[in-house]
Amino acid sequence: MTGRPAMTGRRVRIKVPGAFPYPIGRRSMSLQGSSFSGPLPRIVGFSANLQRPSKTRALVEAVAEATGARLRADIRLFDVVDAGTGLGAAWSRDQLSLPARRILEAIENADALIVGTPVYKGAYTGLFKHLFDFVDPAALAGKPVVLSATGGGARHALVVEHSLRPLFGFFSAQTVPTSVYGSDADFSDGVLVDEGVRGRVSDAAAQLAALLGARAKPSASFEAAPATAFAAPNR
């Protein structure tokens, strides 16, 4: 399929656990083993779109792949649907399903986050906020985060700065300067094709990789969760 940004360097190594056997992106890549050698920075990507595949997921993947092309990392991707249908009915963390708790643990134990949400009625989704309401604030303090969102048109672009950035400011997270917003017109058949948005993806990924590269040591504990995961070698 044409229109997808070319990945530089060596191929990405993908590990797809059996619980969610879907590929990264919309093109297949050769499997090169599932074991990772040595400690790697852990990056969690989270899409709050209620559908899969989705433009939000594609945007999160684009940032993840661009980051992986710059930095060897263990990258795990989740969609809000992975948390199960009971997420919205949970009033406390102990009422969450096991899949939802595993997503929270992955977010809290990651070294960095790539988050994306569709814009509904001028804001991030309710389930996105509901999930992060259960996150331990101390777990995100100082953690690098890339912010992204998708919407029907350009009028929703400021949601990233007016809603997402203040939310992660509350957590004292270190949001990268460049945020990424994609509208319907920026995608073709679910693939990000707009050069301007792809440029922002590249900038955000470079900023995230620089922050992670400056850190001496990844998190000591990172519990594997049932989500798509891939490790990207150095360029």
TrEMBL record:
SUPFAM superfamilies: Flavoproteins. It comes from the Bacteria. Keywords: Flavoprotein, FMN, Oxidoreductase. GO terms for molecular function: oxidoreductase activity. Residues 41-181 form the NADPH-dependent FMN reductase-like domain. Belongs to the SsuE family. This is NADPH-dependent FMN reductase-like domain-containing protein. It comes from Methylobacterium bullatum.
